[in-house]
Structures are given as C-alpha cells and as structure tokens.
Amino acid sequence: MTTPISENFPESIVRENIKRLTPYSTARDESNVGYGTYLDANENPYNTGYNRYPDPHHKILKRELALIKGVNEDMIFAGNGSDEAIDLVIRVFCEPGRDNILSISPTYGMYKVAASINDIEYREAPLKDDFSLDSQALLKLIDKNTKVIFLCSPNNPTGNLLDKETVLSVVKEFKGLVVVDEAYGDFSGDSGYIPLLKEYPNLVVLQTMSKSMGMAALRVGFAFGDSKVISYLNRVKYPYNLNRVSQEMAIRRIKEGSKTLAEIISERERVKLGLTELSEVLKVYDSSANFLLVKFKEASGMYNLLLNNGVIVRDRSKTNGCEGCLRISIGKPAENDRLLMLISNFGKETLAATENPFVEVTRITRETAITLKADFTGGGLSYLNTGIGFFDHMLDQISTHGGISLDVDVSGDLWVDVHHTVEDVAIVLGDALNRYFTSAGNYERYGFSLPMDESEATVLIDLGGRAGFSWKVDFRGEKIGEFPCEMFSHFFSTLASAGKFTLNVKAEGENDHHKAEAVFKAFARALKMALASGNSQSVPSSKGII
Ligand code: PMP
C-alpha cells in the first residue's frame, strides 16, 4: 500500500527549531542593490581580488545549472561538496537523540558519519548478494522516527545502479525524504532521478562536480528537490558556503561540460576486461561508476603489492559484502596499464625491478607553492599552469618532446617578478627527474641533440649523478615578450643542480623565441634519449669512485 506524504510536507518532518529559525541575513541581502559604494559588510575596501564576500545565493551558478538540468533555480541547493548537503539534510529533518535515518550496506560512509555527528541513529539494510536493493528489508526498518533514507546509485563501493522501480517503490511507501545520491550518475548513462522530482516531492537528488567534472578540489556539490525542501537547506547553510573561485570555476565548467567522461567510461571497460583475464582476480563487478570493485584471491597481499609500487587503491576487504575486494578508481590509460601490469606480476620475482614512472613533488615556500606530477610514460595530456604563458609554452616543449606528461600547478609571487616561479619550478622538476632516474634501474645515462629549426641548439646530458652546468647561448634582446632571457640559464642551471645531472647547452640563431624554443626542445630530446631504457651496465657510473 502506498503511504502518501502528509499534506503539510515538508513541514511535517522538519525539526521544530529549524521551522522557527530566522536565518542569518547577509549585509548584501539587506540592501539588495547590487552596485555602489559598499560600506555595509566590514570588508576591506582595497582590491586583492578577494576582498568582497561571494554571492551567498550562487545566483549565476544556479541559473546555468538550472538550464542544463531542466529544473527551476529554486530546486537547487549548492554546497561545499555534496557532503555538505548530506549533513544539512540530516540537520534540517532529524531531531538529535530521537530520530533515525536509513541506508543500505555497503554504501558511502558519510551518511553514517553525518548521522553520528548529529546524534542520529543510523540503520542499514544489507544489499542482496548481487548488490541489488532489498526494498522489503529496508522498509521494515522504518519507524515513526525515521526521517530520511539515503540510497546511493550508482552505489559506492559496489558500482552498480539500483533498480529504479525498486527505488521508486521506496519513495512511494515512505513519508519522509528519500535522498538518491548520484555522485557517479554521469558515468552510468542513465537519466537518473532529476526528471522525476516534480512527481515526487519527497525525493532529493545529490550530484557533485568532484567526479565526472573533475573538480574535487573546488568542493562543489548540489542537492535538487522540491523548492520547499531546498529552501530549508538554504536557510541552514553557512551564508557564504561556496567561495567565489569555486563558484566561478564551477560556472565555467558547467558550460564546458566534461571532456574526459567518455574516455573514463571506455577505460573502465578496458580495465574490466583486462582484469577479468588475470589469474589473481576472482571477480570484477559490473560498474556504472568511475571505479571497479574487484575480488582478489589475496586482497591484502595485492593491496600491499600495489602500494609498494606506488599505486594506491582502496581496501574494501573488511567491508560487509565486499570481503576480499579492492575498489579501484579508473585512472589515465598509462596508470591503468601499470595497474594491470603490477597485478599480472603478483607473486613473480621480477616485480622488484619494475620502476614507477609516476613521480609527484610538492614544494611550498614563502614565494611559491608548486605541485608537479610527472608521468614518464608520456601517457596523457599535460596541464601547465605556472601563471607565465611563455614559460608554460617552454615547459610544454619538455613534455611533448621529452615524452613526459607533466601536471604543473604553481601559485607564485608573480606580482614581484617571474624569478621565484621559474627557479622553483626548475627545483621541483629537477627533483622529480632525479627521483625518477635514480629509481629507474635501466636507462642510457647519456643523451645529446643536434641543431634544430633555423636556430641551432645542442644539449648534452649526463645522468651520472653529478651536477654540472655549462651555458653558451647569446640572446639578442633582454626579453622575449615579458619573459627575461637571463631566466633561461637560471632555469637550466637550477634544474641541473636540483636534478644532480650534468647539462651542457649551446645555441645560436637569429630569433630569440626560436632559439629558446630550440633549447627546450633539444633538452627534451636529449633527456628522452638519456632516459630511454637501455643497459645501464654499458655506461658504468664512476659516482662514488672519482
Ligand atoms: N556521494 C558519494 C557516493 C561519494 O562517493 C562521494 C565522494 N567520495 C560524495 C558523495 C561526496 O562528494 P563531494 O566531493 O561532492 O563532497
């Protein structure tokens, strides 16, 4: 029998104190002019780029999202990740020490944590053996104090979509809120539950920009639902819960859409197939998400093997229903290849010799904060963000011609000049190179390059472990665009000293831009040759001897 929601829904289930709450009113809410001389919010009047508070109502973000999702703006709550929405749903609807929420098992851990934080009882209905929803078991857990049911589809960590008819049967039976968490929905190809919101006022859908949109660091997530339900979440949230950068980046991203969704889905299927063929793998569960749940003969041994070789997956082997399983997120193709290679080598002696082609270095000083990730298989696109366009262009030469994909993210003191940023990127890149070639047992050690383009550049490299540097390059001007030419020798000498390798550079030519580019290209080519796997025994190092 269907239990209709009460006529005064959602007030029928909102906490009494929240119904009575007068929400915080921001300074700008009260004036509501939108322009002028702002002397109302005790902000600092001097522009730092961030001196004004962000829009507390996320108006532009919601306008863009509403268009794409086909809902009204007042049906959207925007939060600091969808984790904020999980917490707020519990805070608005559940009376601490009295009420309870329901979910499934296994599932995403935050529902339980958010319930405990709010002193709310958490009850879970195990999924069936095939991870499908047991609606009867779930409905049996309901009592008069049950306010919210969280269902995750596609479910984390099992990866499967819950059957829609079964989920809707729960929505129809229950007079509280049913929250369907679609964090991984974009990977499923299913239309999801947003189109059903108008039909079911007690349904709430969670989505996030952290997964298919690739914006986890921005912390932007959404709840979609009946405008009255959403208005309660908005009343309780922190006034400025989404910072301005996150709002702006989210808007841009929503307009662009995800460029990587199709590749991640096709990689998921490729990895699934690859895993299925490996003898250590007992089962790969079907996935509609960006991860695979995989049952191994020896899950903890496999977890340690992967970890020891720099591949970090999630051990779910102690989770009810997932015994013996690891949860593996889908990476870039080269990362997935390495995963498959390591798993296929389980128990074989040769494994100790496998080199890790992925290096990550983070360095934070008063002048710069840098994260650099290098993939020495060259697999994948580079992402260069030093804040100096010309320098990014030069680093791109190292990446393209060196067969190294680079993710370089820098926040540097460019208001002073480019010096610290260029120098510190060289230190970090040198460090990454050194870590790679000292761990990789098998490289050629020497590399060289011959003239290129109309300019000639010759770069000699010796990865023998001793820093050395010589520079014979004359630039005609002092700057290329805004970039000071003296920084080139500084970049390369710092790189050689941080990387502990010998680098000799010579270049001649007419055009400074071409000459600089030729040097970077030649360096990249020489590096690629030096790193190419060969027989290191053929060029023995005298390190430690002379
Ligand atoms: N829901 C599920 C099912 C998740 O797996 C996650 C993150 N792992 C979240 C929500 C939280 O995402 P967000 O980054 O938007 O807080």
Q: Can you describe this structure?
A:
By secondary structure, the protein is of the alpha/beta class. The chain has 3 domains: 55-256, Aspartate Aminotransferase, domain 2 (3-Layer(aba) Sandwich), CATH 3.40.640; 261-353, Aspartate Aminotransferase, domain 1 (Alpha-Beta Complex); 358-531, Ribosomal Protein S5, domain 2 (2-Layer Sandwich). Helices cover 34% and strands 20% of the residues. The chain is built from 16 helices and 21 strands. The strands form 5 sheets. The protein has a 7-stranded mixed beta sheet with strand order 1-7-6-5-4-2-3, sandwiched between helices. It has a 4-stranded antiparallel beta sheet with strand order 8-9-11-10, covered by helices on one side. A 4-stranded mixed beta sheet has the order 12-13-15-14, with helices on one face. Strand 2, helix 5 (110-117) and strand 3 form a beta-alpha-beta unit. Helix 14 (419-439) runs parallel beside helix 15. The longest helix has 21 residues, at 419-439. It is globular, with a radius of gyration of 28 Å. The termini are far apart. Residues 81-83, 108, 152, 156, 181, 183, 208, 210, 216, 221 line the site of 4'-deoxy-4'-aminopyridoxal-5'-phosphate (PMP).
Briefly say what this structure is.
The protein has helices at 16-20, 27-31, 59-69, 82-93, 110-117, 135-140, 164-173, 227-236, 244-256, 261-276, 299-308, 333-344, 389-402, 419-439, 486-499, 512-531; strands at 76-79, 100-105, 121-126, 146-152, 177-181, 203-208, 221-225, 281-284, 291-296, 314-315, 325-329, 358-364, 368-375, 383-385, 405-412, 446-447, 456-462, 468-473, 479-480, 483-484, 502-508. The protein is of the alpha/beta class and 546 residues long.
